[in-house]
Amino acid sequence: MGVKCEESDFEKVKVQLKGMERYAYSGSVSSHECYAFNLVPYPAFPAQSSQRISRRLTVRQQMLFDRIIRK
């Protein structure tokens, strides 16, 4: 997921995201006005694949972030 907003507004978004059941905000690739992040909780990943999945997620978040800042 990605959003473009002011830093102070994103703090409000993070509070809302952290309150959502079945989702987990665990950080983002970001600047002062763009944020790309994952909401899938890490326990949902198969144990044998979690490291590989985490690495791919980081790359995908960076790709999404790059697309957001170009707009």
Q: What's the overall average pLDDT, rounded?
A: 90
Helix content: 40-55%
Classify the beta-strand content into a percent band.
5-15%
Helical/strand content category? alpha+beta
Total beta strand runs: 3
pLDDT under 50 segments (min length 5)? none
Radius of gyration: 13 Å
Q: Summarize the helix and strand pattern as letters.
A: EHEEH
The rough form would be described as flat
Number of helices: 2
What gap, in angstroms, lies between the N and C termini?
15 Å
The tally of structural domains comes to 1
Describe this structure in words.
- The protein has one domain.
- 46% of the residues lie in helices and 14% in strands.
- It contains 2 helices and 3 strands, in the order E-H-E-E-H.
- Strand 2 and strand 3 (34-37) form a beta hairpin.
- The mean pLDDT is 90.
Outline:
The protein is built from two helices and three strands, in the order E-H-E-E-H. The protein has 71 residues and is of the alpha+beta class.
